[in-house]
Design a protein that fits this description.
By secondary structure, the protein is an all-alpha fold. The chain is 82% helix and 0% strand.
Length: 413
Amino acid sequence: MNLPGSKTVRSATFVSLRVPTFRLFWWSGVFSYLGVQMQFLLRGLLAWDLTERESGLGVVYLAFGIGLLIFTPIGGVLADRWAKRTLLVVGQGTIAVVATLMGVAAISGNAQYWMLLVASLSQGAMFGLIGPARVSTSAELVGHEHLGNAISLTSMSMSMTRIFAPAAAGVLAGVATVGIGGAYLVAAVFSVVSTILTTRLPKLEPVNPSSRNPLREILDGLSYVRSRPELRRLIVTTIVAIAIGFNYVAFMPALVEGQMGLSESHVGFLTTASAVGAVVMTAFIASRADGPNSGRLLICCGLVFGISVVLFGLAPNYLLALLVVVVLGLATNGFMVLTTSRSMAISEPSHHGRVQSLMQLAFAGFGIAAAPLGALAEMVGLRATIVVMGLVTIGVVATYGAVSFRSPVMDSQ
C-alpha cells in the first residue's frame, strides 16, 4: 500500500527525466560513467602489474589530478564560449580513443608504465574540459526550477555505476581470454556509446559568449566569484572538504589490508557499500534539492560527512567500518550534489562554466592531496591522519554554516 504523498515524492524525485533531452543526456552520462569507473580500477591493476610498487599506484592518481587541475579552468572558459555539445563530444570521444589505445597496448603485450601515465593525465584533462559543461548542460536542459533535481539525478547515475562497474572490470580482467586489455576495450565501447548519444543533444550555444583572451576570461571568473561572498565561501568550503575529507577513499586499502589484515575483496565491499549509500541519498536529495531548506540540508550533510570520516578512522573492526562507510556514502554524495546545485543557483548563467570549473578543483585537490596526506600517515599513523581529515572537514563546514546562517542569501534559498 502506498503512503499518502508517496506518488508525489517519486514524481518529484524523477521530474527532470520527463524532459526528453535531459533523459538522453542522462543516459549518455550512464554509459560515460560505466567506462570511466571501469578505467579507474583497470589503471590501478595495470599499474601494479607493471611496477609492483605502491608508489606506482600513487603517481598514476597524481597524473590524473594534475590533468584535472590544469584543464578544469580551461574547461570552464570553453563551457561559456563554445557550444556545449561540441565540447562534450570532443572530450568523451578522446576518453574513448585513449581507452582503446591502452586496451590494444595491453592485449599486444606492449603496455608501458609511461603510457599509463599519459592515459591517466589525458583522462584527467578531459574530465576538466567537459566537467563544467556537463553540469551547466543540466541547467540548460531542465531550467532553473528543477536544477537541483537534474544535478541529483546526474549524480545518481554516477553512483549507480560505482556499484557494479569496478567489480565487472575486475571480473573481466581476471578472465584469461579477456584480461586487462579486453576490459579496457569494453570500457572504450561504453565511452563510444556515450559519445554517440551526446551527438543527438541540442547544440547548446553559450550564453553571452565572449571573444576575449581565455586567460582574461579565467581572471574574470575569479573576480566574479571574489565579488560574491556566499559563492566564494561555498567554493572554498567545497574544495577544502573534498580535497581533505574525501581522501578517506584513498586510504581504504591501507586501513583494511594493512591495519585489519583483510583482503582486496573486503576493500571492494567497502566501495560498493559507499556507492549504495550514495544512490540512496541521491534519490532522497533529488526531490529536495530545489526546496527552501536545501541550504540547511547541505550543512547537515557536510557535518555528517566529517563526523563519519572521524568514525571511519576510529573503527575498531571491519563490520563497524562497513556501517560507517554506508553513512559516508550518504553524506558525501549529499554534500557534493547540494554544493554543486547551490553554486549554480546563486551564480549567473553567463558564468556557470567558470564557476563549475572552480568547484571541480576540489577533485584535483583530492588527487594532489593524497601524497602529502600519505606522508603524514607514515609520520603520525594512518588512523590519526584519517581522524584529522574528518576534523578539518567538520571545521570548514561548521564555519561555512555559522557564517551563512547570518547571511540573507542562506535564508532566501
